[in-house]
Amino acid sequence: MRLPLLRPDELSPTQRTLYSAFERGTQADEYQGFTVRNSEGAFVGPWGVMLHFPDLAAPLGRFIDLCQNLPGLTERARQVVIMTIAGELRSAYELYAHAVLAAEAGLRPDQIAALSAGRRPVDLNPDEVMAADVATALMHGGPVPGPLYDAAIESLGQQGFDTVVFITIHYLALGVILNAYDVPAEGHGTR
């Protein structure tokens, strides 16, 4: 990682407040299958980066919290979207963490491997394919093509489509942050 990991004893008061919020947030079951802090108590992954930017982390964290709770997709379809984005961006930490969550959501190892490599598994269900197609279109720029938009609304409903849009924004932001600071899988080490 290009930024130093910050141990709890190195934090400013503002960073300490953010660290405490990260501690509370990562207590949820969804954060238990992968490393979020190292043995010295320093946060890794996106949390390790965002501690360096506490004024930006708070509003981004609020946006992320809102996105995490949007309805309209199954958890499996949500993980397909996230893995599609992480695979396209080759975001090491997101691929590492969400491989665990994707497996918990019911994706098989071969499906996770395909998504991690930026490919589409052939046996996703129609809603998962549609969600991945929308996320892919958004990542490639320009408006979502009309036929894709119409098919997505028919398949996912407006709420499901909207959830794909905001999950894509969320994970594009995290993927850019993680790649900019070269955050490795499992978040170990600095350079």
Can you walk through the features of this model?
The protein is mainly α. It has two domains: 8-68, no CATH class; 75-180, AhpD-like (Up-down Bundle), CATH 1.20.1290. The chain has helices spanning 13-25, 45-50, 54-68, 75-89, 92-104, 109-116, 126-139, 146-180. Helix 4 runs parallel beside helix 7 (126-139), helix 4 crosses helix 8 and helix 7 packs across helix 8 (146-180). The longest helix is centred in the C-terminal third of the chain and has 35 residues, at 146-180. The mean pLDDT is 95.
Query: Could you describe the largest sheet, including whether it forms a barrel?
Result: none
Helix content: 55-70%
Strand element count? 0
Distance between the termini: 6 Å
CATH architecture of the largest domain: Up-down Bundle
CATH topology of the largest domain: AhpD-like
User: Helix tally?
Assistant: 8
Beta-strand content bin: under 5%
Which regions have little confidence, pLDDT < 50, spanning 5+ residues?
Answer: none
What would the average pLDDT be, to the nearest integer? 95
* CATH level 1 class label of the largest domain: Mainly Alpha
**Structural class of the secondary elements?**
mainly alpha
Q: Order of SSEs, N→C? A: HHHHHHHH
- Assign an overall shape: globular
What's the Cα radius of gyration? 17 Å
- How many domains make up the coordinates? 2
Draw up the topology in text:
Blueprint: H1 13-25, H2 45-50, H3 54-68, H4 75-89, H5 92-104, H6 109-116, H7 126-139, H8 146-180
